[in-house]
TrEMBL record:
Organism expressing this protein natively: Sinimarinibacterium flocculans
Annotated stretches, region: Disordered: 690-715
SUPFAM superfamilies membership: P-loop containing nucleoside triphosphate hydrolases
Residues forming coiled coils: none
Residue intervals passing through the bilayer: 17-37, 43-66
Acidic residues bias spans: 695-705
Keyword annotations: Membrane, Transmembrane, Transmembrane helix
Protein name per its UniProtKB record: Conjugative coupling factor TraD (TOL family)
InterPro entries found in the cross-reference section: Conj_coupling_TraG/TraD_PFGI-1, Conjugative_coupling_TraG/TraD, P-loop_NTPase, TraG-D_C
CDD domains: TrwB_TraG_TraD_VirD4
Comp. bias regions, Basic and acidic residues: 706-715
TraD/TraG TraM recognition site domain span: 507-635
Entry-linked Pfam families: TraG-D_C (PF12696)
């Protein structure tokens, strides 16, 4: 086997083709006119075969050069239908690519040298065709037809336009030999971070991962799939349903969508808990704990905990509506719990309380109880005269003893959060009525989802109301953390016959635009959730998004430090690109230098007038494996992947091909159509600010259109 040269040069003319032409000509002569070479016909055939074998070897060498030069300018198309996505029980398919090594850095450095630029950049004919195409767009007929011919996307077109993916094809074209890039499933417990700016392929990569998670079976059982989609991607929802149906799991598919409450499943974020204090923790954790706000958050935690304990004692399941109702008016809960408590312990106490209430007037009510109901004041007087101890009753009593205005100030930071979670139709989703059997919308909780190995799509409608989306998302993350802790200690079958604490299943959590959802709840989920089988894949745009959301650089670093696998698509922020490049070593690349010179002879009578020399010097220089500029120049659908303990891979994802077997239920089709029509990127909101379609009732859902007509009738 031939040893590779110290300096590899693939950007050069394919001079091997000259040898191929000579060998072909010689073989032809040997076959047609062997007598011209003084050969017999038999020796002519043997010589022709020898020339053809040698020509084939040189043709193979020439093909390496030609293919390399072609890939540098244009990569071959890579398309795959969803049905063809490989699903393994041991590895996660990412795409096709290669492991990035020193030789790839050397090849990439060569493409930027002036002598090689003509091989790496578009040809003069290509640039002329594009300029002519632009000029002919508004030319009189029939010249625009010529523009369409120039833009014909076919290999037969010598001026074929490049695919609309932007970036530098050379970043992937420097390695013609691609293989399937996969990630061992055991590495996913270390969590995965996907970074990339808008519209570069994050959602496509998410679809690829989610497709495999839905269809994968390990030991005969499916895996749990939970997808958080803040902005609402209709194609992602469609892909999830189609794959669920293809895997025979449409009965385990749940859609929770804040913008489409009529068909959304319902969910109570505080209805299931291991310890009653978790209810207060999940709600208070979303309040600010910085500076003076920390004390108010502690007070809010205490009052929510008091209310939750009382509700549980009364046999009621806590939800946001009940908690808000009693935060606003805690007197009613105090009276209701007192009736429940005295009915069991001291039935005659209520007669005394009624007598005390009858004696009260404005003068006999204590100053700190002004504004309270008389029955509350009577209860307080009765409890102060008797030696009754009940922790829940004492907690409620301490709450009503506060001055009314002081109490309102203490819970002032809690009420805006509860308003976000209980306004409009959202209240029906987050505070479901369990006794209403006529409501067909299912109710789920995370433990139920895990036990059923179900699939959940969570659309948070963040483009319509980012505040409510963040509040609901944080509530769900907080609930997931609690469930993860329970599974870690007791397994998923706790309380069932034959339960085994070691029984766990992979729980695949995909959080698109997770910076919009992330709060303090997300940190323990990725920090400690792996022990419960949580496998988080988070998608966002920049590191600054994470830091801006958390508001603390140290916490942002804590979040990033818990992701073991990193997929970096094109980014526009250098600091984000450096998250990848700073983790990579430097390598030595070879450079050649041409040195020539001439020296005059000092002996004017000698036979030599001057001496000259020419040298090719090979030197090495240390450069980073990749630069941040390379990450910024990635085409759409391509990424650098740092996986399996820091191994760098260059990957491109397959383009989606249309699949004929993609049918959704009518209600989900309406939801997907509404999402496509109304959900736009954050930077494009102004384009539809005055769009007529937004003023037309036909563009609204039926319920909103009816409300609009009724408002017009009233006016």
């Amino acid at each position: 086997m031939a040893q590779p040269h110290a300096v590899e040069v693939l950007l050069r003319p394919a001079v091997e083709l000259y040898t191929v032409a000579v060998c072909a000509g010689a073989a032809l002569v040997c076959l047609v006119a062997p007598w011209s070479l003084a050969l017999s016909p038999l020796l002519g055939v043997g010589s022709a075969l020898t020339f053809l074998v040698f020509g084939a070897i040189r043709l193979r060498d020439a093909w390496v050069i030609l293919r390399y030069r072609r890939n540098i300018r244009r990569l071959p198309r890579y398309v795959m239908t969803s049905r063809d996505v490989p699903v393994s029980q041991h590895r996660l398919f990412v795409g096709r690519g290669f492991r990035w090594e020193q030789r790839h850095t050397h090849r990439l450095v060569q493409t930027y040298k002036p002598e090689f630029r003509r091989y790496a950049e578009p040809t003069t004919f290509y640039r002329m065709a594009r300029r002519l195409e632009e000029r002919l767009e508004f030319a009189p007929p029939p010249l625009p037809k010529l523009a369409r011919v120039l833009a014909w996307d076919s290999p037969l077109n010598p001026a074929r336009p490049l695919p609309p993916v932007g970036g530098l094809p050379r970043l992937h074209g420097i390695e013609p030999h691609e293989i399937d890039v996969t990630l061992p499933l055991g590495e996913r417990v270390g969590h995965t971070l996907v970074l990339g700016t808008t519209r570069v392929g994050k959602t496509r990569l998410a679809e690829l991962f989610i497709t495999q998670d839905i269809r994968r079976k390990v030991n005969g059982e499916h895996e749990v799939v939970i997808v958080f989609d803040p902005k609402g991607d209709a194609d992602l929802l469609k892909r999830m349903y189609v794959e669920a149906r293809r895997a025979g799991r449409e009965g385990e598919f749940y859609v929770f969508h804040l913008g489409w409450a009529d068909i959304s499943a319902r969910y109570n974020a505080v209805g299931r808990f291991g310890r009653i204090s978790e209810v207060a923790t999940r709600i208070a954790r979303q309040l600010s704990g910085e500076g003076n706000s920390a004390a108010f958050r502690e007070f809010a935690w205490r009052f929510v905990n008091i209310i939750a304990r009382a509700l549980v004692e009364l046999g009621q399941r806590p939800d946001y509506l009940l908690i808000q109702r009693h935060v606003v008016n805690i007197d009613a809960l105090f009276i209701e719990y007192a009736q429940h408590f005295f009915a069991k312990t001291e039935p005659k106490a209520w007669e005394v309380i009624v007598q005390l209430e009858a004696r009260l007037n404005d003068k006999t009510i204590p100053r700190h109880m002004v504004g309270r109901e008389k029955r509350v004041v009577a209860l307080e007087q009765y409890l102060s005269q008797t030696r009754i101890y009940d922790p829940v009753l004492d907690g409620l009593r301490s709450a009503v003893r506060y001055d009314r205005t002081y109490f309102d100030k203490i819970v002032a930071s809690l009420l805006p959060l509860l308003e976000k979670l209980t306004t409009g139709k959202i209240a029906q989703l987050l505070a479901p009525n369990y006794s209403d059997l006529s409501d067909p919308r299912p109710i789920f909780d995370w433990m139920q989802i895990v036990r059923k190995r179900a699939i959940v799509y969570v659309g948070l409608d963040a483009l319509s109301d980012a505040e409510v989306a963040a509040a609901v998302g944080n509530s769900m993350f907080s609930d997931l953390v609690s469930v993860a802790g329970h599974i870690y200690k007791h397994g998923i079958d706790d309380g069932l016959p034959g339960a085994d604490a070691s029984t766990k299943v992979p729980i695949n959590v995909h959080a698109d635009e997770f910076n919009e959802l992330m709060g303090d709840e997300f940190i323990p989920l990725i920090n400690k959730g792996g022990g419960a089988g949580m496998q988080v894949t988070a998608y966002t745009q920049t590191l600054s998004d994470i830091e801006a959301r958390i508001g603390n650089r140290a916490k942002a670093g804590q979040v990033i430090g818990n992701f073991n696998n990193l997929f970096m698509l094109r980014v526009r922020e250098t600091a984000t690109a450096e998250l990848l490049t700073r983790q990579l070593p430097k390598v030595e690349v070879y450079t050649t230098t041409l040195v020539s010179g001439a020296t005059d002879s000092s002996d004017i009578h000698g036979p030599t007038d001057f001496t000259s020399n020419a040298q090719d010097r090979i030197s090495t220089s240390s450069v980073p494996l990749i630069e941040p500029a390379h990450v910024v120049g990635l085409p759409k659908g391509q990424c650098f992947a740092l996986i399996e303990g820091g191994n760098l891979w260059k990957v491109r994802m397959p383009l989606p091909a249309p699949d004929p077997d993609e049918v959704m239920p009518k209600d989900l089709q309406q939801l997907a159509g509404y999402m496509r029509q109304h959900y736009i990127e954050e930077g494009e909101w102004w384009e539809r600010a005055g769009a007529p379609c937004l003023q037309d009732d036909d563009s609204l859902p039926e319920d909103l259109a009816e409300e609009a007509h009724s408002d017009e009738a009233r006016s």
